[in-house]
Amino acid sequence: MYLLAIVAPEVGLGHHVLFGANGETSVHPVVLAATIVAIVLMLLLPRKHVVAPLLLLSILSPLGQRVMVGPFHFQIVRILVIFAWIRLLWQRYSSEGQSSKIRINSVDKAVILYTISCVICYTLLWQDSAAFFNQVGQTYNVLGLYFVFRFFIRDRKDIERTIKVLAVTALPVAALMLNEQMTGRNVLAVFGGVPEYTAIREGYLRAQGPFTVYLTAGAFGATLLPLFLCLWHRGGARLLASLGIAAAITIAITSRTSTAISACLATVIGLGMWFLRDKMRLVRWGIVSTLLGLHLAMKAPVWALIARIDIVGGSTGWHRFKILDNFIHHFWDWWLLGSNNYWTWEGGDDMWDTANQYVSTGETSGLLSLIFFIAAIVYCFKYLGSARKAAGRDSQQAWFFWLLGVALFSNLVAFVGISYYDQISTYWYALLAMIVAAAAPGRFARTVMVIAKSPQPKLGGWEAQPDGSEPGLNKLLVE
Length: 479
What we know:
Shape: globular
Low-confidence stretches: 1-8, 12-16, 444-479
Structural class: mainly alpha
Number of strands: 10
Radius of gyration: 24 Å
Order of helices and strands: EEHHEEHHHHEEHHHHHHHHHEEEE
Mean pLDDT: 86
Largest sheet: 2 strands, antiparallel
Strand order of the largest sheet: 1-2
Distance between the termini: 35 Å
Number of domains: 2
Helix content: 55-70%
């Protein structure tokens, strides 16, 4: 999560966190030209296309490309966010006015409270001005990206356009990672931020493309699958959807990580649960009961099962078990503000690597930040569930909402294996914005009885007004 901070920290000698890590401006001429083009496009394109250049370049540009302004790191994504906000403000106050005003909902509030909590807790934990600026940078990333996507992604058509952009983005990523598997070299190393030679684990290459590590690269591809299925089901863009699905699978496989394969399996499970969609409460309680039963029956805690996960060979399942085990057993050490010595807990010298989004959030910013983070996810599921039920007999609409939920679920599974700290964060906040645009209250219709005055005495002076689909019913857009 720290590579996107304005003042980037790193773990230094003796496991001390160093704020304001050294760096210098490094922008390749090709990336500079692409950035200028992207900025021009964001300022001039119609509103519905503004997201495209932001997503494309933010994901494809390695984080090694940056501009230093004093101690502040401005990666390409941060530069693009500045101009995206310029376009947003112009659109809001000059072009569209009140009609484009964002209606704040529970997901928005949870995201805002999450960032505020992170700033306060992290600063109090370290009591260092550089720690404060570090979290200001994190807040810039989170709120800057999220509300740009919230503003420009407004309805089903915007969502479909965004998914198409993600499909186009996935194609070069897949090609680059496939080339890595074949040659053992990452051609993007010339831009910095990624190694020239592909990582090897247990004799297998782990491609990463433009991402900082192969884990986030694999998670990116695996969690895109449900979104591309949305395009396929919609029709009209099946060629692009097919190419996107092929690219997503290629990215997941060439990263050769258990995290990516687990996210793919989560997608399969999520799709299968469609047939139990009206019994999900029973399914959830069944999962909880099963885990509780296993915990009582096993000699080790139930989360020790994570240590046994090694789908592709060379996975560090034990490490993931241990950081979660420490997280649980050291609850009282991190719950208030986080911990500034979690890497010294038992388990070896690599406990600084909190390769788990939930653990990373809690150990760096405390329980309150973790609660707000989870709250945003819970409200997304709540909105999607309500929207699916409101779709009624419209199976196509219900399936669309379900696939968005599957995409969210696959990310939650990926969170167990990696914390999102590079370009994948851009995609994550775009996904949240898409879910809000599709399913937040006021965005969908549900059937209600509309009563109108009637001269017929037998109805007591009132009668139900039909809408043409079912007698006595009228469909209204309600909150």
